[in-house]
């Protein structure tokens, strides 16, 4: 196998903080976000017609932090209080600065996100993306493009997964469906996008 010539299996450049928030703080943040975020049902054009995304989304950020995601032009809404608190905490631990966040609300195990990398040009070459999880735990898979190697994390409530370096360039990630799961989950991915 190719990676053996370079000394072992590939590993994604991630930092993993499974107990980043106290459980009660994570539970409170989830309830606040359900109310304070302007959740939208986005659609995406596919060869088979227009489809609803299997999750609700929200987008907040500084003015000018416009972001095109899966062909959707996202104008950021104003930051809301709970999101700003989490942003400050994520900036403190990563030593990065974020000017926007994509929020994903998985209403149950039927909601999901397919394989993708966050590689839009406005994110730059080696983006730092801080992913905060609240509520029902969901599996997060990373798959190495060149070798197919898989790494999985159980994204529990209050956890923080920081993706950095070549993670977006060399890996894809997804949140697969979780059959039978009734609990709701909210995920926030803090990013820095080049303002325009
Ligand atoms: O919900 C998650 O954990 C992943 C979210 C994600 O990949 C994204 O927002 O780009
Ligand atoms: Fe992503």
Characterise this structure:
It is a single chain. The chain is an alpha+beta fold. The chain has a single domain, classed as Alpha-ketoglutarate-dependent dioxygenase AlkB-like (Jelly Rolls). Helices cover 16% and strands 37% of the residues. The protein has helices spanning 23-36, 81-94, 167-170, and strands spanning 14-17, 43-46, 49-52, 56-61, 67-69, 72-74, 100-106, 113-116, 129-135, 138-144, 150-155, 159-163, 171-175, 185-191. Strand 5 and strand 6 (72-74) form a beta hairpin. The longest helix has 14 residues, at 23-36. 34% of the residues are buried. It binds 2-oxoglutaric acid and fe (ii) ion (FE2). Residues 116, 118, 173 line the site of fe (ii) ion (FE2).
CATH C-level label: Mainly Beta
CATH superfamily: Alpha-ketoglutarate-dependent dioxygenase AlkB-like
Ligands, ions, cofactors = 2-oxoglutaric acid, fe (ii) ion
Task: Estimate the strand proportion.
Answer: 35-45%
The chain-level structural class is: alpha+beta
- Please trace the helix and strand order, writing H or E for each element: EHEEEEEHEEEEEEHEE
Unreliable spans: none
